[in-house]
Design brief:
With 400 residues, this protein is of the alpha/beta class. The strands form two sheets. Strands 3-2-1-4-5-7-6-8-9 form a nine-stranded mixed β-sheet, sandwiched between helices. It contains 16 helices and 16 strands. The longest helix is centred in the N-terminal third of the chain and has 14 residues, at 34-47.
Length: 400
């Protein structure tokens, strides 16, 4: 691709326009490769929030909008640097757009970027050069074919493609490409460490059964949305109860919680049918990891075995999730539904272990969306259905 100044200026000037209209107007710009330009504009729209430094750099090329959609964010790519050491030669077996490759290269000694699509490799070479990454070697080819030619690798990173026939999303590990389950023995034969990025939709326990040698699992969320699950696999590891790290990245702040599955199984949490002053909702990583019982070791009591809401008398500032001050507990009945709108005309509603959905509860109660009241519809330990009216715990309340 001839990456000309005219083309870059066109992409910059039309960044906010509808790409379909640009395609229809292609004849007005005979000097512009419109299909390529539209792909760049669409990709840049997708990465604006998760790759702010790449979005700001108009020297970079995107091989496809799908690559932009599937790539890691800068926050999660930076987190992965913690899993490797400076002396390593790491091979990224599924290079893609190259975000993870780039961030690994800023920590390790050398990185081999492997990708089977020529356009991706060409874009990667251009982008790594533009970004000043001189310790990355771009290799074109299929992982199964290139693996036997590699040597001196200390760690493999793999992010199997979660798209099947007809670009359909797949989540089962064996349906992804390449098949990590089949490939893993060969990877561990060549290197002592494998880091696998798994779909956030995957079942952690089922995945563990498929991947022997897992020593750590990192469940990564960004702004309380689960984005990635990382399985750290080591050669000849005998650990049967890997450590699970729940991380929620919120700007420059991290919410963290760690546990093991045996700790979760052996914890006997307390349950309550009377709430205290504060209410807690665990973040997406804690919920995805299934730390429903052992989270109570922080000093909270569970409202119900299936509700996954917690309460305490004293504010726990380091609780990994949202913290609320309870204002009122309302019994859920017909009378409440008929009168609650006059008291709470607007609220942010959540349902946890409750017979109605959020939409059904809004329709029945007439409560509009919005405001600073958070209404949790849930079930207490004595099976009572209630509506918990609360507000976010403020900084002033946290200090008292």
């Amino acid at each position: 691709m001839n990456w000309t100044l005219t083309l870059k200026e066109f992409i910059r000037e039309h960044a906010g326009e509808d790409v379909n209209r640009l395609l229809l107007a292609a004849s007005r710009y005979p000097e512009i490769d419109m299909a390529f330009a539209v792909e760049q504009i669409a990709a840049r729209k997708q990465i604006q929030e998760k790759l702010p430094s790449w979005h700001a750099n108009d020297e970079l090329i995107f091989p496809s909008r799908l690559a932009a959609e599937q790539c890691s964010s800068e926050l999660t790519a930076r987190y992965k640097q913690r899993l490797v050491s400076e002396s390593m030669h790491l091979c990224d077996l599924t290079g893609g757009l190259g975000i993870d490759t780039l961030f690994f290269s800023r920590k390790v000694k050398q990185v081999s970027y492997l990708e089977r699509f020529q356009a991706y490799c060409e874009a990667a070479r251009h982008n790594f050069k533009s970004l000043g990454a001189t310790n990355i070697n771009v290799l074109e080819g299929d992982a199964l074919e290139v693996l036997p030619t590699l040597s001196g690798i200390d760690a493999f990173y793999i992010d199997p493609a979660r798209r099947g026939d007809g670009n359909k999303r797949v989540y089962a590990l064996q349906d992804c490409e390449p098949d990590l389950v089949k490939l893993l023995p060969e990877l561990l034969r060549q290197a002592p460490l494998v880091i696998a990025k798994i779909s956030p939709m995957a079942d952690i326990r089922q995945t563990l059964e498929l991947l022997p040698g897992v020593t750590e699992i990192h469940v990564l969320s960004v702004k309380n949305e689960c984005k990635e699950i990382l399985f750290v696999i080591r050669e000849k590891a005998a650990i049967s109860d890997p450590h699970i790290y729940c991380i929620n990245l919120v700007g420059n702040r991290e919410e963290t919680f760690d546990f093991t599955l045996s700790e979760e199984e052996n914890t006997l949490p307390g349950f309550t049918h009377t709430t205290q002053k504060y209410l807690y909702e665990p973040n997406a990583s804690v919920l995805k990891a299934g730390a429903f019982k052992c989270i109570t070791r922080l000093g909270v009591t569970k409202l119900h075995i299936n509700s996954h809401l917690y309460t305490s008398g004293q504010l726990l500032e380091d609780f990994p999730g949202r913290r609320f001050v309870i204002e009122e507990i309302l019994p859920f009945n017909n009378k409440c539904c008929k009168t609650i709108r006059t008291k709470i005309p607007k609220a942010n509603i959540s349902t946890r272990n409750f017979p109605l959905s959020v939409d059904a509860l809004r329709k029945r109660s007439g409560i509009q969306e919005g405001g600073d009241i958070y209404l949790f519809a849930t079930t207490l330990a004595n099976q009572e259905k209630v509506l918990i009216s609360s507000r976010k715990a403020s900084g002033e309340e946290q200090n008292h």
